[in-house]
Amino acid sequence: MMVPIRCFSCGKQLAGVYEEFKKKVEKGEKPEKAMTDLGVKRYCCRRMIFSHVDLIDEISKYPR
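Above: the chain sequence. Below: its structure as tokens.
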């Protein structure tokens, strides 16, 4: 899985937050509340996590 390591705008480290965010959302918690609980308060960081699409498993199926 390729998660953005840092926010492109402010530089805050986000790699450690993504897994926990994903678990909370899969359990049924609202994404907004999950991000607030994890300490992601800036809208630029929230955008990075919320809009991330994990495509590495799809891309790795195709050889060069």
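The mean pLDDT is 86.
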